[in-house]
Amino acid sequence: MCQRLSSILAVVATAAFLLIPLMPQAAEAQEGSRFRVIVPDLQPTDGSRDRFGQRVADNVRDLIDMDTHVAMSQRDIDRAARDFDLRYRDLDCTTARQLASQLDVPLVMCGEYHEEGDQFRVDVTFFTVPAGEEFVIESVAVAQNDESGAASHIRTAFEGLVQEVQTVAFCQAEYASSNWDQALDYCSRAVELAPQSNEARYALARTYLETEQWQNSLDHFEVLLEDDPRNDDVLNNAAYVAGQLGDTDKAREYYTRFLDINPDNVSVRNRVAYELAQAGDDEGAMNLLQEGIEQEPDNIELHERFGMYAFRAATARQSTEPQPATQDGDGPQVSSEVAELFRTAIASLEMVIQEKGADADSRYAVNSMRAYRQLGEPAEAIRIGEMAKDLFPENADLRSQLANAYNDVGDVDSAIAALDQALEINPDLSQARTRQGNFYLQAGRVAEATEALKRAAEAGEQQPDQLAGMLFSHGFSNYIQNQEDIPEGIRLIEEAKTFDVSTEFGEQLNFFHGYGLYLRAEQVQQPQNLESAQRSKPIFEEAARHIRAGEGYAQRSGQDMQNLLDAISQYIEIQEAIIAREGRRR
To answer: SS3 sequence, 562-573?
Structure first.
């Protein structure tokens, strides 16, 4: 979350306009319960006579004599100015505001005028002190001798100004107290009454941010940026809100502008990159850090974050891209853009590991290994893993990833050993025994695979149906379906049936067990002689028994069980005929 507004002075200064003071004020700022206003002479901007501006100021001081505010007299202003080596006649807008700050006077009127035909055009602004908020009243043209008319216009405008400032004060007070509902009410009205009040608009934008009304918040921050494009606080807030809206391009733009103002601040760059990453823009975050690394290539803190963001950017982009085809499964399984991101991540993460050793985050080694595997370089993943084992002896995830890398290069025994070590550290490591079973299966070590998968079932890693299904799927797809090694496929199905499977899955296993036996019997009976008939006939009969035991599965899946049984029956009759014929010949 962005930093909270810290401009308490603005709140205090604006609150000074409340109709009823909440606590005693300094004597210089207050007369009784009324707040004082400094009104210096209006200044001509074109060489017009000074007398008009002096008389308008005199009239305004007489007219600002209200229940809530009173103008300081010329004598009192002059007396106070002498303490600072000034005189009333020396005061312009700047020195009047400086004097007001010293006296704790919360409001100063500044005015100027110039000739416009036979009239004077009068422009007046009231400034809050010390916040410097400007409240501009509507310009007016009066006859050159109508000082009272100009003053009357200013007095009328001031009455409306008091309401504006009061609403702004309530806005600031409720915002500073984190009373979001009240702040939303008062700040909305304050911006409507005083659209020029940047303090009120900022408080409203921040209130929308705090209540997660992101679009409304961004709209007001962008208005503030139109007035002050280099306000780094507003840029930071606008970037954060844009990120929450999912507008990463706009968030990146505002953060970049923010860093243009603070280019050498590493902590700021890290914080901005973090907020970009939190908004889902990891590539934007790493690009910001890249600029910092170019300035400080040995800054380990920058490399840490840069490497992590680069890795996340690579995996995010990889998830949206189709994997490119590779020959014989060798080489990287990612696009060149993703590969470059992975290599960038590895370079920074390995630098951090080398520099910080055991004080580094163990995830850096794990992610480097993952990146190398995605690049089709499991040997490099093994190198990192073996080195990192000594640095992080109690890290199960690292050994788990090392097991994957060993399996990638076909070293199943080392892969199993790495997972055993991981299980010693964390017996609850997710799917570790299941993966051991899968590694053994891929290596054709069925008995060991079965034992590993049974251990997975005992540990509750997966349901027995799922674990037995791994044996069944491997056996059927690799050996039975292509008829390359039907006996091996049947053996895997028989192993699957030793698990405590559900009735439904047991029926499926029986059906395909029978189907595998049927295919095997077809192969055995091929010579169609006495020996082949005697060997194949019991296999056909066993196939029929298993298929009938899988009747429930056949009905649910729409398998034509009867047609298959009819075919088996015909084969059995043929084998019986061959046996009978050959028997008579003997």
So the answer is: HHHHHHHHHHHH
Q: Does pLDDT of 214 surpass 50?
A: yes
Bridge-partner residues for 70, per DSSP?
36, 65
Distances in Å between the alpha carbon of 13 and those of 221, 223, 438? 22, 23, 72
Per-residue confidence band for 173, with pLDDT thresholds at 50, 70 and 90:
confident
What's the pLDDT at 465? Answer: 96
Q: Please count the residues of the chain.
A: 586
pLDDT at 327 > cutoff 70? no
404: CB partners within 8 A, 6+ apart:
369, 373, 381, 415
- pLDDT given at position 439: 97
Nearest alpha carbon to residue 471 among 437, 512, 500? 437
- CA-CA distance, 60 to 179, in Å (whole number)? 38
Taking the C-alpha atoms of residue 204 and residue 196, their distance in angstroms, rounded to an integer, is: 13
Sign of the CA dihedral running 83, 85, 91, 93: negative
Residue 347: enclosing H or E segment and its boundaries? helix 336-356
Residue 483, both tokens: 């008829």
Question: What is the CA angle 173-199-252, rounded to 5?
Answer: 120
What are the structure tokens assigned to 392, written together?
């992080």
3-class DSSP string for 27-90: CCCEECCEEEEECCCCEECCCCCHHHHHHHHHHHHHHCECCCEEECCHHHHHHHHHCCCCCHHH
The CA radius of gyration of the chain, in Å to the nearest whole number, is 42
Count of other CB atoms within 10 angstroms of residue 374: 19
Q: Do the Cβ atoms of 280 and 243 come closer than 8 Å?
A: yes
Q: Where do the H-state alpha helices sit in 145-265?
A: 147-176, 180-193, 198-210, 214-227, 232-244, 248-261
